[in-house]
Amino acid sequence: MNENDKSVKCENSAEEEEDEMFERELAEDAQWKRIQQNTFTRWANERLKAVNKHIGDLECDLSDGLRLVSLIEVLSQKRLPKHNQRPTFRSQKLENVSVALKFLEDEGIRIVNIDSGSTAIEHECIERRNKSDCRA
Fold first, then answer.
1. Could you state, in order of their start, the residue ranges of all structural domains in the chain?
2. Beta-carbon neighbour count of residue 94 at 10 Å?
3. Which end of the chain is more exposed for a tag (fewer CB within 10 A), N or C?
């Protein structure tokens, strides 16, 4: 084995080690996210009991804005501005989420890295509904 072969073997070994470390970090991050998501879902459901609402899947159930509006109304003890009670179109769902986020902003609550147009979540929710009959 010459020097070039040894060098390539060391580089491949280092890359494999780096890939394994990256995969472990992703797995730990995913587990932490699931824990946070489950914790928030339980917390939100405790508050939503007051208005007989429930969140089963956090991303899916908040995507149309209705449960988000309800949660904010329970927490703030205020009624939010007019919103779509039966949103069917994406634009109506986005409008509901925008109403909720605007209300929080007007109340002086700073929201970071959240907007109403998260299409990735919407598409993921649609896929979950098709697979597991996720309720809206």
1. 3-132
2. 21
3. N
Tell me if 63 sits within 8 A of 127, measured CB to CB.
no
CA distance 101 to 113: 12
Answer positive or negative: Cα dihedral of 94, 96, 102, 105.
Answer: negative
79-124 per-position pLDDT tens digit: 998 999 999 998 999 999 999 999 999 999 888 776 666 544 555 5
Question: Has domain 3-132 been given CATH number 1.10.418.10?
Answer: yes
59 Cβ partners below 8 Å, 6+ apart?
Answer: 121, 124, 125
Ranges of H-type helices in 49-65: 58-62
